[in-house]
Structure formats: C-alpha cells, structure tokens
Design brief:
Number of helices: 10
Number of strands: 33
Largest sheet: 8 strands, antiparallel
Low-confidence stretches: 1-107
Mean pLDDT: 74
Distance between the termini: 33 Å
Strand content: 25-35%
Radius of gyration: 27 Å
Shape: globular
Helix content: 10-25%
Length: 655
Amino acid sequence: PQGMPQVPASQLGLGVGFAPGGLVPAQQAQKKESKAGPLLLVGGLIGGSVLVLGIIAAVYFLFLKDSGTTNSNSGTNIAGGGNRPANTGVTSGGTTGGTTASGGKSMRDELFAAVGESFGTPGTWATYTGSGFAADFPGAPKENSQKQFGQQIRMAALLQKSAMNFAVMAVDVPNTPSAARMVAMDAMVKEFEKHANVSQQRDVSAGSNPGREVSLEAKSGPKQRGLARLFVTDGKLFMLVAAADEGKFVQADADKFLDSFKITGGGQGTWEQYTSSEHGYSVSFPGKATSKTEERDGVKVHEVQFRSPDGVAYTVQVVDVKQGDTTAVGSIRQEFDGYLSTMSGQQKSRTEVTQGSARGEEIVFDGSVNGEARSVHIRAYATQQKIYKLFCIGPQSGFSADDAQRFVTSFRLAGSANVALHAAAVQWLQTVNDKTVGVRQLDENHPEVNYWGWMVELLPHLGHQELYDQIDFDKAWHEGGNVAVAMNPIPEFLNPADKNKVWTGIRGAGLPLTHFVGVSGVRDKLNDNPATWPRSDPRAGIFGYKQVARPSEITDGLAQTILLIGNGKLQHPWCQGGGSTIRAAGEPFFNETTGFGSAGLAEPGAYAAMADGSVRVISAKIDPKLFRALVTIHGKETVDLKDAGKPLEKFPSAP
C-alpha cells in the first residue's frame, strides 16, 4: 500500500542487521565476498574486533557447524534498506547464510583455531560490571566497546572450546517506545528460528524491564543447545546467550548467568519528558525527575534532577537574569572556567551552542573531580530573562555518553520554534526551486519510504536547526547516525488531540509519526499516483516525489490550494518519503479508514493549511468537486472559499 514503511520492525533505530554471524551493523550485513574468511562476519578482523568473536561464538555458536551447506543465500537484513533481495546477507569465504566456513572447516573450528582453547579467563563465579549492565560469569570475560555506523556496541564474553560459553551484548539505541519493544523481540526470535530449533519461549524481566527467553537447539550436526535472553529498553538493546554441546550444557550455570543479569545506567527505565511552563522549557530525563525551587546565596534557583542507580545525575537549573544585564553569556564562560579549574583529566570538547536567540557553551570532560573519576557533560544557554544549565555528571563506570548527549539535546526552550507548522511550511515553500524534491531518493531500486521525505526540510523553520545539522543527507534515514534523528518526535508534526504518536506497524516500529501530509493531487483510479506525474498535469497538487511546485506554478491561487492536511488514521513516520508524507486525494476523500481526517474536531473533517499560510477546518461533507479544486494547483476551477471550511488562526500543533 502507498506509504507502507519498508524498513523491518526490529530496526527500532538500532542501525544493525542480522546476518549469518549474528546481529551486525546494517551496512556490514551487505558486505561482499571476502578472502579474509568467515571472521569478517561482523565488521572487523580478530585482531581488531573482539565483537566479532563474541557474536559469532556466543550468539550464533549453536548454528555454526560443518553441515556441508554452502551458498545458501539465506541471510536476512533486518535494519538496512527495507525490501532488499534475499541474498543481501554477509558473504564470507563463499558462504552466505550457510554454515560452512572456507576450506570445509566449521566456523567454530576456525574461531578457536584463532583464539585458542578459550576467550576470556575461566575461573570462579564473579560479578562482571560492564557499561550499562552487570552479570555473573564463571571467570573473567573480555569486553570490547566500539562505535560502528553511529551505534555504540559493547560485548562481554567468556568462550571455551570444551565447556559452556557465555556472552552479553549491549547496543546503545535511540528512543524505543514501550509499544515497539515486544515487536522487536518477536522479530529477533523469528531470526533465531531460521538458524535453530526454538523449543520454548517465556517472558522474563530484568528489574522493571520485560524481556524474552528462548530455548535453542541446533538443527543439524552434533547436538548443541543454549538459552538466549533479549531485552529492548528505552535506550539499549541487550542480548545474552549461554550455549554448549549437549553433553556439556549445564542448566544450573545457564540459569545462574541469565538470572544474575542486571540493567544499570541510562539503559534502564523509560525516558520521560519534563515540561516547565513557568520557566519556559522542556527536556527528557531517563526516568522520573523531581523538582525544587530554593534560595542559594540570595539567588532563586529552579532545579529538576534524576539520579540513576549508577550515581549519574541529570540536572537542569534555571536562574533569572537581572533586568538590563547583558553579561549572561560571559558569566556562563566564567562559570565553565571555574568548573574546569576543579577538574584534572581530558577535556574532550568545549564548543559554543545556540537555540533560537539563546546562546551558550558546552563542555564534555573525562577525568578527576575532587579526586574521583568522573565523566561530565554540561551545556548552558542564556536568554534576556534566564540562564538554563544542564548537567550530566557521574562515575565513569556507569556513565553513558549517548545518554548524556540525548539529555542535553532534548532540551527545548518554549518559543524557540520560529513559527507553527503551517507557517513553517509556507516559509519553506517560498524557497522551492526547480531542484527541490519531495523525496531525497538516493537509489531508485529501493522505495521512496526508505529515504528522507520533504518534512525534514521544515526542521530549521521550526527551531530544530540543531537536529537538522546532525543529518547526513548522503545516507538514508535508517542508516548510521541518521536513525537517531529519525527517532525524535517533532511536536509540531503532531495533533495534540490524537493519542497515536508512534508507528506500531510490522515494519519500522517505534518511529514517531506525523499527523499531517502534503497533497500530490487527485487520484481517479486505484493505481494512479499523482506524486509520480509532472506538476504540469492538470490533476497535480503541490507535491511530487521528484518535483515540488513553486509558488508561481500554483496558478489557481495560494489561498485556494491545500499545502498540508490531516492524514486521518493512515498515519506514518515523519522522516519517511513516499506515501508516508505525500498523499493523493482519492474518493471518498474522507473515508474513515484511508481518507483524510483529524482528531479532536466536533464533526468529521480535517485541519488543512493553504499555500498562503491560512488554516481551515474542512468538513467531510464538502462538495467533492470543490475539494478536487482545492488539491490541484492549476485546474482553473472557480472556488468560493466560504464553502471551503471554517477558517482558523493556526494549526493545533502550533507551539
């Protein structure tokens, strides 16, 4: 169907994909044949990436046997380019999705030929504390942490050729709403089923975080079995595996390892938005924050804080600026100088920041604070009325740089958006030229929904310049660091009366929605797609995939042409191109299931923004001929706006 997202559900902003070697960065799941052998399955050689060993030996250790199968082409890309052909799995030594390594050896044999009898040091049971998790291992595991394609990946593994194997993998991910987490785990269990027999499943938990346990047995060859647990939180994905040959599998040891697992740091709990109308800002915390206002040295300070179990403090402080004081930004610099004078270690960065007319600075620092190892991320803004300070400070062992970055970049000043959605869209429309497109499609072999849609261009006009600047437009929205941007809900794209704010379909689950779309024109037949027609077609609207009409081309009149309209119940992520954000008008125009519409109205209808910036509520009872005239740009119809709907001052999403 038009607009159906093509990116599978289990992506959830992870930027990773499944391949025969396990969960891997999405781009890596498309690597071509390599003479380096099967250990290239994940994106690094043995000498350069412990992660490779951990995923191969622990996550898919059960299935890597010499079954005599080669070139089976059964690899599956979970996060990459949507509907790719089946043979896009990793290819290594002539095997894609098969189970035989180059030279006839099993991958398991090649693994231990490279690392010896064990990876990590077997010993007595002890708690191992990693970044964002803790678990008991029967010895000392090895850990690797690296950033690949914008995702921070951590692995702790204890692998033994002649005994049990244990591994924990943690991947930092953007916001993953609760509704999407079970969808993700279901998708990953289905991947397990492709490589092993799943004998049973059960729901489990790690603290307040729900998860899934799967019992696995090898499909062929020597009997091997194992247990895997999956957790997707609002900030991290965790995968745990305990596996061994049938005769060496110890159920009690597997249970002890899995039950000991704890989620720590920002990966636990759910991110919650805190809004202060009194002080004019909003910000997201990785948990329930508490607020207080008190006098400090004669100055009234408003403070909101959340402290994680690891001792990482996320804090916002607001102080008033004295009337006529023009030195607020300078006072921020002096205060930051004072912070640095109390620290010893490595200053990673110190930069200027802006948001709207507010200016300030940011410091990222690792080192010693009052004799203790601390990580510090501070950002501050000064306006004519207030100074806003954001602190993320905590012990290095429990500090997540990604959580700190998410915290400070979630901060929004009220009124920092330049204009409301309808006005921002008109501002952007005035910049349209013959090179402006409705979809930034990088490869025509993949559908438009896999690429950035036109709504991303509104971000700078809505006060989200900082978010816009993070985008790499040489990549699709689901690639690398772009995923983190795509996972940001944009308040201006939402109708406050509509409770549905997150995509929960079977593909792309967890992505924030838009409640409004651009109009491509009139569709008379089911297979018509006006977005693919030239804008010169008399049935065309403002938006096409490869062309957007310039204001001068809207000869029916800007006030008589719909630019944006409520998308009814057929809602899709704002980041996507194609039918997700550009919709054709087909009768019945206000069909309850697939037609236009907006929540919160007294009678069926939709909010609509005209190309001149005016806003109307268009009734579902509108004359179909009149509505056709409103969605075309040069149909030469005569329109009486009195019959076109009730005029409004602004969209309901206006800040």
